[in-house]
From TrEMBL:
Family note: Belongs to the 2-oxoacid dehydrogenase family.
Cofactor(s) needed for function: (R)-lipoate
Pfam families, sorted: 2-oxoacid_dh (PF00198), Biotin_lipoyl (PF00364), E3_binding (PF02817)
Species in which this protein is naturally found: Amycolatopsis bartoniae
Protein name: Dihydrolipoamide acetyltransferase component of pyruvate dehydrogenase complex
Keyword field contains Thylakoid: no
Entries under PROSITE patterns matching the protein: BIOTINYL_LIPOYL, LIPOYL, PSBD
Enzyme class: transferase
């Protein structure tokens, strides 16, 4: 006897409310196995592959690529007893508790054995109520017409149809609201605000209007750092390591944060407390095809220069491929944004929510510089530090920035910190 279960979009990261379907890797009739990846979604933080927690045969695909679905909405319907017996040799219970995989939310959904034509199984959603079965185009139409599917009764086998939606919308709206067609030759295009771009915009607006920002600037002669870099690249301990100037900046930030712990703290408004961190989870702003993301290097302060360089290479490669796990985006304590990679001198970066400071690392350029009273051509960069003035006052921010600059100007200073 068939036993149907719905695979739901669970919360893959803290605070997730919806996600865009990037791809669906199965179709009706396909057999699936436990932990097989059945679809890929883009959350506000990254692209995530979703494995299914049970085996069976796919009977319905309820979403399509490009569709945005809410947490708790059904993605697939699977017959977990397609051969009338046990799946993987175990007899299915009349009622069982389905728990999502670790990292894929904490909600528990109870499913019951039923015949194919019984009352449709429905999916709990984050805002309460239930979403009945409906094909993706029907869900899209309902969204356009402002119809709540949870309030409808189906007319065909427990599945909401286009006619059901249009009938519900008739009293208030005679026809679907269609977007104005783009005229031939138009020099504009419109792209929905969603995914990483939407999350970044919301976070930056929140930060800009919550934390009182102060930005300070420092120009540094980093010729000694660049000379040391060339020397270390030939050292056996750096064999196979991509040693970038950013690695030196990461090390300098970790060392300087120990002398000025206020830049590595957070403001807890609800508790009325300042939280000082005895560790550095270093955020690195990375540009990706999906937008700006800020993955973290955990316990960066405990790493050597070579370890930081390796971690940076792995982090940026993973981020550009869109494969950063959502958990790696959380819990940062201070951030570096490398605007120099674009040839930019500096900027006024916005602090990541929950952090106290962010350092902009500019382009390293040959510039005229006075050395021992003589004009010379040196390797010079500009640093910009934005900090939350609730946590960091002018003296502390200036001290931290000066310490970072001193280490980059003369790496030997690191042994004094």
């Amino acid at each position: 006897m068939p036993e149907f279960k719905q695979f739901l979009l669970a919360d893959t990261a803290e605070g997730l409310t919806d996600a865009e379907i990037l791809s669906v890797r199965v179709k009706p009739g396909d057999e699936v196995t436990v932990n097989q990846v059945v679809c890929e979604v883009e959350t506000a933080k990254a692209a995530v592959e979703l494995p299914i927690p049970w085996a069976g045969r796919v009977t319905e695909v309820l979403v399509e690529p490009g569709q945005t679905v809410e947490v708790g909405a059904p993605i697939l319907t699977v017959d977990v007893d397609p051969h009338g017996g046990a799946v993987n040799g175990s007899a299915p219970a009349a009622e069982e508790e389905m728990k999502p995989l670790v990292g894929y939310g904490s909600k528990t959904v109870t499913t019951k054995r039923r015949a194919r034509r019984e009352a449709p199984e429905v999916a709990p959603v984050a805002k309460g109520g239930y979403v009945p079965l409906a094909k993706p185009p029907v869900r899209k139409l309902a969204k356009e017409l402002g119809v709540d599917l949870r309030a409808l009764a189906s007319s065909v086998d427990g599945v909401i149809t286009r006619e059901d939606v249009q009938r519900a919308a008739a009293p208030t709206q005679a026809a679907p609201v269609q977007a104005a067609p783009v005229q031939a030759g138009a020099r504009e295009r419109r792209v929905p605000i969603k995914g990483v771009r939407k999350a970044t915009a919301q976070a930056m607006v929140s930060s800009a209007f919550t934390a009182p920002h102060v930005t300070e600037f420092l120009t540094v002669d980093v010729t000694p750092m660049m000379e040391l870099r060339e020397k270390l690249k030939k050292h056996p301990s750096f064999a196979g390591v991509k040693l970038t100037p950013l690695a030196f900046a990461a090390k300098a930030v970790c060392l300087a944060a120990k002398r000025t712990p206020d830049v590595n703290a957070s403001w807890d408004e609800a508790a009325g407390e300042i939280v000082y961190k005895d560790y550095v989870h270093l955020g690195i702003a990375a540009a990706t095809p999906r937008g700006l993301v800020v993955p973290k290097i955990r316990d960066a302060d405990a790493m050597s220069l070579a370890e930081l360089a390796t971690a940076l290479e792995q982090l940026t490669t993973t981020a550009r491929e869109g494969k950063t796990p959502p958990a790696d985006m959380l819990g940062g304590t201070i951030t570096i944004t490398n605007v120099g990679v674009f040839g930019v001198d500096t900027g006024t970066p916005i602090i990541n929510p929950g952090e106290a400071a962010i350092l902009a690392f500019g382009a390293i350029k040959d510039m005229p510089w006075v050395v021992d009273g003589q004009l010379a051509v040196r390797k010079v960069l500009q640093l910009a530090l934005s900090f939350d003035h609730r946590l960091v006052d002018g003296q502390q921010g200036s001290q931290f920035l000066a310490d970072v600059g001193a280490i980059l100007a003369d790496p030997a200073m690191a042994i004094t910190y």
